[in-house]
F-box domain-containing protein
Amino acid sequence: MEVPAGLPLDIVGHIADLLGLVSLRERNSLQPVNDELKMLSLTCKFMVPICRRHLFAHIVFSPDVKWKQGLNEFLLSDPIIVTHYVKTVSITVTQRTGFNTAEYDLLQKICELSSLNSFGISSIDSDWNGYSDTTKLVALSFMAKPTLRHFTLNSIKNFPVAALSLCSGLTELSFYDNCSLDPPGPGHAVQRPAITTLVVKPFRGYNGTFASLLQPMGRNTVIAFGHLKSISVSIRGPAEFIPMCQILERAICLERLDLSVQCYHVPLAGLGASLSANPQPKLRSITLNLDCSHPENDNPLRLPGLNLELRQLSGKNKLEVLEVQVKKGPTVAALNCSKAIAKLWARDFDQLVTAIGAFPALRQVIVDESMPEISSTSIHRKHIPLRETWFPQLQESKAIQFELHPF
């Protein structure tokens, strides 16, 4: 099939690239990429390599995604796909299942021939020490690739921290759910990769990742916190908040912080002191997602505590962008309490960030308000959203772009 007359080939290629970006954002590691790319690849020969570049960019090996024999043979025999298109590999492992012969052969070919830049290991609360030797060999072989830049662990316990020494070019390290690291033996020196981006996102329960990262390895820690430029973390309990603040205090090159906190039982005390400890701050952007809702308790917002922490940064920062996302409580009592507190917080916040010399580089402030999905329609009707009139200085400011997104 030929490309329709009048439609340049570069435009059609651009469409494929846009579809690939959508696929990358929406892709679930256990689901195939969107069907539009597959259909577009059938329109003409010109589109085949363009669409394959996205279709085969991310390959998943999982007990729930069994490779068909024909697809295995195709990828093993094709001279182009593995060497040019595969950039990300994700494996989901358990202690009871491993890779069959066809999967192992394909993994070996990808490891040997691809220019892989991202690799991830996922499980369901399983222990690294219980994996088969073949599974460990596959994982460590991918980690040793010099082109690897991003490594992800998802719910893996007792992962050997010494394995990070294999990642010579690693710059981004991500932990999802509850992960823990197994320290090296006595006298074992660990070469630390220069990680610039750290992501820690628990989904349930206590997350021991922070404590693992702070474990002493001789005179050092697992990673060199002084190299970090971007940190994205979620905090679910007070026990996680303290080690997180210790990491922030050591991250002297930090430029971006994305922090999500369940505020109904996690106080913010210590955040401001950690961020203001650096005498030569480089932090440019802060996004705070404060979940102040609780399905059972009518706890008031912890917003006043946020202002106390921000006040410690006053006059000692280069902050350019500040975004505060707030989720309110789901009951009438919580909303009534939150209204009064939110109004006082808004006026204090308004004066704080606009005070002369307090945040001299600040150019954008965003306040986003939401409610949990479990809230009833009657609760929504009684809710009084944040108002622009509560932020008079920010509204009048010519130097700061202010955006308010009330619920």
Remarks:
- The longest strand covers residues 118-127.
- Residues 332-354 form the longest helix (23 residues).
